[in-house]
Amino acid sequence: MKSLNPRFIFLLSLTLVSSSFGFYLPGLAPVSFCEKEDAKECQKDIQLFVNRLDSVESVLPYEYDAFDFCKDTDERRPSENLGQVLFGERIETSPYKQNDDIRWASRWDYILVSMPHTNIQWFSIMNSLVIVLFLSGMVAMIMLRTLHKDIARYNQMDQEEAQEESGWKQVHGDVFRPPRMGMLLSVFLGQGTQVFIMTFITLFLACLGFLSPANRGALMTCAVVLWVLLGTPAGYVSARLYKTFGGENWKTNVLLTAFLCPGIVFVDFFLMNLILWVEGSSAAVPFGTLVAILALWFGISVPLTFVGAYFGFKKPGIEPPVRTNQIPRQIPPQSFFTKPVPGIIMGGILPFGCIFIQLFFILNSIWSHQMYYMFGFLFLVFIILVITCSEATVLLCYFHLCAEDYHWWWRSFLTSGFTAVYLFVYAVHYFFSKLQIIGAASTILYFGYTLIMVLIFFIFTGTIGFFACFLFVNKIYSVLKVD
C-alpha cells in the first residue's frame, strides 16, 4: 500500500481547518435559496427591493414610486440605518420578481458592465502611488542629509562665528514664540485630530470588509458614530495646545472646539436639507432624524469634548527645548519663494497629486451613482497622503527657518491645508466637465455639499502638516547646542 504524500496531507488538513473555522465578514455573507424552504439552511422566496430614482441631470433623488408607476400593492419598508437616511436610500419592496434564467455566477455582471474605467483604475492608482513614493523618498533623503550637516556645523562653531552665521539656528529664541490667534489654531487642531482618527478607523474597517458596499449606509453610519465618540481627543488636543500657547480663556476654547466646525457643517447641511425638502426629494432627512443627530451632538459629543478639555488643561503646557527671547527678532527680507503666500500655494500641490485619481472615482461614486469598492487602494492613498503632507510641510518649514522666518505655526497648518483649495478647484472642474446637471437647486446642492467636504479636508490635512512640523522643529532644536 502506497503512503500518502505529506504535502497532500498538509493541504487536506488546512482545508478541513479552514472549513471548520471559516467566517464571513459583515455585509458579505451570502444567503442560500432553494425550491423548498428550510429555516436553517435556505430560503424559498427572493424578495427584491428598490431604493431610489436618480438622473445624470440632477442630484435630487426621488423615491422609486414617486411618479405613480412601478407601485407595489404590498408596500413594506425594511429598517434603515443612519447612513441610508443621510444618503436618501428609501428602501421599498418591488413589484417585479427575480429572473430565474440568470445564472448565480453571473448575477453581478450588469453592475460590472455599468462601471467604466474599472481596468484603467488599477493601473492609474499604482502609477500614482509609485510616483508619490519616489518623490517622498527623495524629500526624506534630502532632508536627512542636509539637516545632519547643519547640526554638525552649528554645534562645532563658537559664539563669535555663530553671530556672523545665518540660518535656522539664529531664530532659536523666537521659533517657539506663541502664534497670533492661538485660540483659533488650537480649535482647528482639536477638530482635525477628531477627523483624522475617525477617517483612519473608518477606512481601516472598510479595508477589512466590515463596511462593504453590500451593507448599504454602513460607511456613513460608522463615520458619524465615530465622530460623536471622538470628542474626548478633540477637547484634549485643543486644550493642551491652547495652554502651550499661553492661553487662559479655557471656557471659550472648549465651546469653540465643540461647536465651531460642527456648527458650520450642520448649518450647511440643514440649508441643503431645506432645499431637498422643498423639491420633494427622498434624500431629505426627516425631522426626527435631525433631532436624533442634534441629540448625539449635544448629548454625547459635547460632554466628551468637555471631558477631554478637562484633562488637557490639567496637564502642563508642552515645554519647548529652547528659551524664548522677550524681544522678537526682526525678520530679514525674504525672497519670492520663502514668502508666506507662494510657499503655502506650492505646499498643497504634491499632496493633491497623490489623491486626484482616487478623487475622480470618489466623485463618480457620489454624483454619478457608481459603486465604489476600492477601499484597499483608498487606505493606501490615505497613508501616502499623510506622508506627503508631512514631508512637504516639513521641507518648506525648513526653508523658511533657514531664511530666518520663524512664523511657522499657522504656516505649517495652511501649507498642507491648502490642498483643500485644489480639491475645490477640481470639484468645480468636475462639475463643468463631467456632469450634466441642470437647475439651480441641483447646482446649489452640489456646491453646498462640496463646501462641507472641503472644510473637513482642510482641517484634516492642516492638522497633519502642523503636527509633522511641530515634531520636526522640536527635534532639531532639542539636539542643537544653544548658549
From TrEMBL:
The keyword Kinase does not apply. The chain crosses the membrane at residues 122-144, 187-211, 217-242, 254-278, 290-313, 344-367, 373-401, 413-432, 444-473. One of its GO terms (biological process) is protein localization to membrane. Coiled coil: none annotated. Keywords: Membrane, Signal, Transmembrane, Transmembrane helix. InterPro entries: EMP70, MFS_trans_sf. Belongs to the nonaspanin (TM9SF) (TC 9.A.2) family. It is a multi-pass membrane protein. The keyword Membrane applies. It holds the Pfam family EMP70. This is Transmembrane 9 superfamily member. Residues 1-22 form the signal peptide. It is found in: Membrane. One of its GO terms (cellular component) is membrane.
